[in-house]
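Re: magnesium ion structure - here you go.
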Amino acid sequence: MKIVRFAAEGRVKYGVLHGDKVQTLRGTPFRGIRLTGEAYSLDSVSLMAPCQPSKIVAIGLNYRTHAQELKMPLPAAPLIFLKPPTAVIGPEECIIYPAASSRVDYEAELAVVIGKAARHVSTTNALSYVLGYTCCNDVTARDLQSQDGQWTRSKSFDTFAPTGPCIETELDAANVSVASYLNGERKQQGSTSDLIYSVPDLISFVSGIMTLLPGDVIATGTPVGVGPMFPGDTIEIRIDGIGTLRNYVTKDRS
Ligand code: MG
């Protein structure tokens, strides 16, 4: 099942995709899937980010080949950082290139969407806390990341967390292809089978530190091949079984 969040007739709703139709859900998908009976054609609605996380917990250096390209040592435990909810944008929205940076990179990542509050969860039970999976672009001002040492500024600009286009509830996250395409050209291609820390490992680890709430997102790390984007570029994150998250890079006009 593919869950979407969308705007139609001036309101924001959740729905379930069925071919080119969106069937509206009653309330949110976090308390069970209940259809209202109302439906829209997909091309008549605007898809939004499929959830509104209280936090995005992102994982650094979770693919060996990516750690090698950044010349960083492999972490001895999952390396986590936070991206703020204000960084989230949805499909087809613009990533604003901040004036403070001259090197802004894409990072294709499988994102876990939490379905119910999770605290001190074991790896064995971890997947029962998952609503589903979506695509995330962990946009990073690479120059500021190395300049600052810690990562908050480089990862947290408004628009730096494109998310979507849907939450797929039936994905086997242990082995899916994660790719990025810049202006139609493939730049990254990895498989979650190469993750150093798996999805259950990450849920267990993070929930031992902070309570994960419904709608929270864990971005599981990016494979090798990160690189720069510039205003005017189109960036796509494609994950088998989920779909394509497309965004456009624009200049900061503020
Ligand atoms: Mg990342």
